[in-house]
Amino acid sequence: MDKKDGRAADEPGAAVRLDDPWYDALASGWGESNEAGDEARQRDDRQSPQETPVPDPRSASHDDVYRVVQKSAAFQEVRRRYRRFVVPATAAFLAWYLAYVIAATMAPDVMAHRVAGALNVAMLAGLGQFVTTFLFTWAYARHARLRRDRAALDIRWETQELTGRTDR
Amino acid sequence: MSVDQHTLALVLFSAFVAVTLGITTWAARRRRGSAEDFYVGGRLFSPLENGFAIAGDHMSAASFLGIAGLIALFGYDGLLYSVGFLVAWLIVLFLVAELVRNCGRFTLADVVGARMRQRRVRLAVGAASVTVSVLYLVAQLVGAGSLVALFLGGAGAQARTWTVIGVGALMVVYVAFGGMRATTWIQIVKAVLLMGGAIALTVLVVARFHGDINTLLNTAAEHSGHGSDFLAPGLKYGGDWTSRLDFISLGIALVLGTAGLPHILSRFYTVPTARAARRSAVWAIGLIGGFYLMTIVLGFGAAAVIGSDTVRVSNAAGNTAVPLLARDLGGGAGSTGGTVLFAVVAAVAFATILAVVAGVTLASSTSVAHDLYASLRRRPRATTKDGQRSALREVTVARVAAVGIGVATTGLALLAQDLNVASLVGLAFAVAASANLPVLLYTLFWRRFTTRGAVWSVYGGLIPAIVLVVLSPVVSGGPESLLPGLDFAYFPLENPGGVSIPLGFLMGWLGSVLSPKAADETRHAETEVRALTGAGAA
């Protein structure tokens, strides 16, 4: 329930930062669907004339929200799931690719060994690279869809609600 | 014989130019003129559309004609290229696509600049992006010149010069008037044409051998003049230790470079969410993987059907292997089928070059306007009136930058006309992997990465990569060098990637460790939460 802390630490900030690339992003509509984005944009358009005393997007509470979310159990779980898949998978395909390139340049005799018909070790390894690339792609997309997407989206809406409340 | 096929190729190619100009007019009329429209087409493309556009951006004529040609001449060693180009997409999919979509707005520098919030970081990343794009553009334009010399018969220097100028002018028109929307649809049309052409030829090759791949490979080995060595690595890169190390260096650059190419990264901003970015990368991997599998069949098919020697006589680099194969499959020289297929392949290859250069021109003009120009002055908030006006001014700068980049790269391409296209492309990949990839990965994944680390890693990769190329056999010391009369080739490898990529990572680490100030934990928290959840994403 540390998210409540983020909300409680609601206070207007002092320093005005003009050169903030992310603030523009917030202002240009962050909705999942286009309609939501358009709504946000229209709201911004309506507000813009009176907004001359710029409310600070970089307030302490805005920063706090992200730190609090980062420490939350839900986010840690999403990050853990992402890393648990991506780190070993990246290590595996890079090692497999480097082994392939080094074998092809340093040990052509082994690679030229015939297996069946015109097929030799090199052909099998090359086609194997294609097959593993397709398999890794499929596995990653499936893992992300089933294990990460929903939790990440929940955190996204919660975070935006918190920052929206502190920003506007 | 030549009049027919050249006229037909010209007609087909003019039709493609007409269609693309139509798309540009349509996109220019529909534009609302906002930065979001110009840079990323309003972020409204579907994953399928974007997947085709990514594939279109990635599959250059160098891969269609070049890789198939290398296979036709050197057999297995040509295949090594396509494996590197494909495996690179796993890095894009796993580590880059979704996170970059979530953290940035238009460019690579957005991602890094959002965490570091320092003008010099944005300038460094922007400068590196422009450098990579310019190198890549010059390579593609040089390729366009030599292609036309090959296809349209008139191999004279004048035809080449005017082709390079014409392609340069067209790409500027697409980008300056049509922005991302026109560029994307041109990529999609081109990707469909390219896949269609490749599928048709592959089916014809396989049909010629009655579906027996084993016979196809054996015949290729027989007609190559190398016997069974043709089907194993070593014909091209198996010489002395220098050339073997050179290939390993190139292999590393190929697999790490794609994730640092600005025109590839900016494609992920054209879809609404990170999920859509992931799905477009999956589509792209399917299309690109299928395409490379077909180029392997075409390359071995060319060796089997027309023989390596015939290919070598026509063009020493093998670039004509696929068109010659097409002519033979259609019924041979002089026949209607042969003429039509030859002309179709020529037109598809040309469409490919036009689409790729448009994509890269857009990415580099975006970097000039959004990263370099915008960070050299204070930018008011986008919601205020001043801010809206300045965003519009930025788009105008981008359109003007497209013209400037077009003129500059066309000029460079005319100077570098005799340079080897493959080594120029390899160089662009090496610079992308050395200067852009380390800073991007550190920003996304390393808690203790600092501003100094960011600046050091960009320049620590960019400068060694360029210096090593200047000192390499590409520039001087050999008969095929840019300056054959001089010899200051102190670095033996043609591709600097094996040295400069580790240097980029090393300097990023060193700069962070030696930073006077510790890394900003809050910025890191914000980056991490945004990257993995999409909170606050544009």
UniProtKB/TrEMBL annotation, chain A:
Question: Composition bias, kind Basic and acidic residues: at what positions?
Answer: 1-10, 38-48
Q: Does the keyword Transmembrane helix apply?
A: yes
State the UniProt keywords alphabetically: Membrane, Transmembrane, Transmembrane helix
Instruction: Tell me the superkingdom of the source.
Output: Bacteria
The residue ranges crossing the membrane are: 85-107, 119-141
Keyword Thylakoid among record annotations: no
Using the UniProt annotation, give all residue ranges assigned to the region (Disordered): 1-20, 26-62
Record PANTHER family: INTEGRAL MEMBRANE PROTEIN-RELATED, MEMBRANE PROTEIN
- Name of the molecule in the record: DUF485 domain-containing protein
Where does this protein come from, organism-wise? Streptomyces piniterrae
UniProtKB/TrEMBL annotation, chain B:
UniProt keywords, alphabetically: Cell membrane, Membrane, Symport, Transmembrane, Transmembrane helix, Transport
Q: What is its main location?
A: membrane
The keyword Signal is annotated on this UniProt entry:
no
What Pfam families would the database entry show?
SSF (PF00474)
Q: Which InterPro entries match?
A: Na/Glc_symporter_sf, Na/solute_symporter, Sodium:Solute_Symporter
- List locations, semicolon-separated: Cell membrane
Record's family? Belongs to the sodium:solute symporter (SSF) (TC 2.A.21) family.
Q: What name does UniProt use for this protein?
A: Cation acetate symporter
Source organism: Streptomyces piniterrae
Q: Lineage of this protein's species? A: Bacteria, Bacillati, Actinomycetota, Actinomycetes, Kitasatosporales
